[in-house]
Amino acid sequence: MNWSFIAQYAPFFANAALMTIYISFFGVLLALAVGLVCAAVESAHVPVLRQIVRVYVELSRNTPLLVQLYFIYFGLPKLGVVLSAQACAIVGLAFLGGSYMAEALRGGFDAVPRVQLESAQMLGLTRIQTLSHVQIPQALSTAIPGVVANVIFLVKESSVVSAIALADVMYVTRDLMGMTYDTYEALTLLIITYLVILLPISIIGTILERRFDYARR
Amino acid sequence: MHGAELLLQTSVWLRLLQGLWVTAWIALVSVGLSVPVGLIVGWLMTSRVRVVRWIMRLYLEFIRIMPQLALLFIAFYGFSRAWGLNLDATAACVVVFVLWGGAELGDLVRGALTSIPRSQYESAQMLGLNPWQTFTHVILPQALRRMLPASVNLATRIVKTTSLAVLLGVVEVIKVGQQIIDANRFQYPDGALWIYGVIFFMYFIVCWPLSIVARRLEQRWNHDD
User: Fold this and answer.
1) pLDDT over 90 (residue A135)
2) Exposure of B25 by Cβ count < 10 A (0-12 exposed, 13-18 middle, 19+ buried)?
3) Short name of one Pfam family for this protein (chain B) (predicted)?
4) Rounded Cα–Cα distance for residues A160 and B142 (Å)
5) I need a surface site. Which of A11, A146, A163, A193 has the fewest CB within 10 A?
6) CA–CA dist B157, B36 (Å, integer)
């Protein structure tokens, strides 16, 4: 192991990690928004929108992110939709993640028994009060484990964005291996970088799961 | 000329299907080999020896937290340095997908095995079944029901992940698509839209039926236990 290599190139990986975090952060945020809209449409049984959401969910879940990214990055400009590589990566992650988030959130809302809504209505709570005091707290406790798993999944999936020339962790690893032939050192830094990004998310996720697990507290 | 005309050429479809076959081959071999590996891993995970369980746990957690592309890099670039094991890109993909699929499937096997109540084993023993009969007639049918939907989903994930093979230089469906786009760049400048669109739907046509099967199994078997 060449320690001076590690000391020399660690800052490269720190920068690359920032790129990975940046893309994943906005990708996850957008995916959550898409997922929330889809879950709302599905549980409210909005007629036409519901079919559109179904088609989107199936398309997004049954195709790989890499192909989605290539389509957005190389295909869409031919239709006049030109996005920067970063925007493509974020939109791609949101397209993939939206359906996963929708399923997790919908599972949460479906798990709230009808009786709860009827009781809330009988107690004279308004629609908004029912949503914020009855539905959301209970839905969260069921949905959070799924949402956390999806966040980790999306951060991992973001490793693919190196394919559209974004300088993320994978990109820097390949670059350094090509330049220096120090394969071990570059791969070690790759593993450490992903652990540094993903372990805290995983730990925060576990804490959140405990915090919102009303049933077991 | 309009890029969609590219899709009227039979040769384009033949080449893409050849590429898809490479993708499918990697996926089939990986899923096929994952099953025995997963059974062994699952069995080791329920081992009475604590060290064995810890090692398996560590193996599973490492595979889970690393992006699949990172695992591919480690196998493709790292193994050759470490043990002089010169895997070609296709072999590196299969090795990684089997290690990954085996770990995930192993966890499903473990979950299914531990979810079966002790009383089932004890009742089987009381009825005079020997351990092998107990396993094949009592435990296995119940365990299979519990893990099959998730296993089919795992197969879908493996098929989708084979798309990463192109980044190691395997000439599969995406690479073939890129070659077609590049070869026709002047004649059909907007070929990328159509070719990537076709590849998108090729993956969809392979994965969608698997997802439906998984969902059906889940719905059918959720009711009776």
Assistant:
1) no
2) middle
3) BPD_transp_1
4) 38
5) A11
6) 18
Domain locations along chain A: 10-113+143-216
Q: Determine, for residues A62 and B203 on separate chains, whether the beta-carbon distance falls below 8 Å.
A: yes
B158 pLDDT higher than 80: yes
Please answer whether residues B160 and B207 qualify as being in contact, where contact means their C-beta atoms are separated by less than 8 angstroms: yes
> How many angstroms away from the CA of B72 is the closest CA of chain A?
11
How far is the C-alpha of A93 from the C-alpha of B53, rounded, in Å? 35
Cα–Cα dist B210/B205, whole Å: 9
Looking at the complex, report in whole angstroms how far the Cα of residue B49 sits from the nearest Cα belonging to chain A: 27
pLDDT above 90 for A131: no
The pLDDT of residue B1: 60
Q: What is the mean pLDDT of residues A176-187?
A: 88
Question: d(Cα B20, Cα A119) in Å, to the nearest integer?
Answer: 55
Nearest CA in chain A to B192: A75
- Residues of B within 8 A of A151 (CB-CB) are none
| Longest Cα–Cα distance in chain A | 71
Is B70 in Cβ contact with A170 (below 8 Å)?
yes
Tokens, residue B107: 């966890």
* Ordered domains of chain B (ranges, CATH): 3-223 (1.10.3720.10)
- Mean pLDDT on A51-71: 95
> What are B21-48's pLDDT values in tens digits?
999 999 999 999 999 999 999 999 988 8
Q: Which of A9, A5, A2 is nearest to A193 (CA)?
A: A9
Number of residues that this document lists for chain B = 225
Confidence of residue A214 (pLDDT cuts 50, 70, 90): confident
In this complex, do A64 and B69 lie within 8 Å of one another by their Cβ atoms? Answer: no
Instruction: Out of B70, B81, B211, name the one closest to residue A159 (CB).
Output: B70
CATH topology of domain A10-113+143-216: MetI-like fold (1.10.3720)
- What number of C-beta contacts closer than 8 Å exist between A and B? 110
Q: Name which of A212-216, B22-26, B48-52 the model is least confident about.
A: A212-216
